[in-house]
Amino acid sequence: MEKTDNKSVVKSILKTYRKDIWKKTIKAMDEYKMVKEGDNIAVCMSGGKDSFLLALVLREIQRHYIIKFGLKFIVMDPGYAPEVLDLIKNNAKNFELDIEIFNTNIFKEVDQEKNPCYLCARKRRGHLYRKAMELGCNKIALGHHFDDVIETILLNMLYAGTYGSMMPKLKSDHYPNMELIRPLYLVKEHDIKRWVNYNNLTFINCACNVTNKKVDSKRREIKELIENLRKVYKDIDKNIFKSSENINLNTVLGYYYNKEKHSFLDDY
To answer: Which domains, and CATH codes, for the chain?
Structure first.
């Protein structure tokens, strides 16, 4: 595998993609108050383009940010094939990222499940929290981006009959004093792909055995729907995102707050 010029890749984030990646990441961290002085953050890396970009951006922000925080780079191996692990290790070496790999058996556990992607995500989250705590971290950072957010909004509306977004940060319900943050929250997937192609980089796609069997994916359907809507109106994605900031409770039939259901008739 050809060695990647780490300095050139980082420079492209700071220069070529300064507006679309660098500034949007800092904006999200500031706007949603993701980091506090003295935080120790476990950057959770799957081996894909999003999490590797996240690691590189956070490392640079750590060097320049007014708030001081620590970073650990962790990779959970849920049952990857040897060649997949080799690619992850090579990329980490080329980018000079000191990663810690730990093993789980998630792929085998969820292979026969009816809803494997949902179960896999839940199991992954638990393993990542536990590893982060073991390393003395109080937060985990995931590589979800802008498109993940708007896809989640539409998935909930169209397939679950509810309105719910993917939040920029969350307190853990099961791991005390632990929090999840999503620094790439405002970064579009299109720009991440442009960055990858610009630097001629290679990352893993989803290495899950279930996905590789071409199991139908509702998220893939929503992704295609959004792409088609963008052709009709280029700012459609921005409006989907803004909808989660501009909810008028006077115009909805009902809503949940702290798991308690409310109706517009309550105060009619």
So the answer is: 6-267 (3.40.50.620)
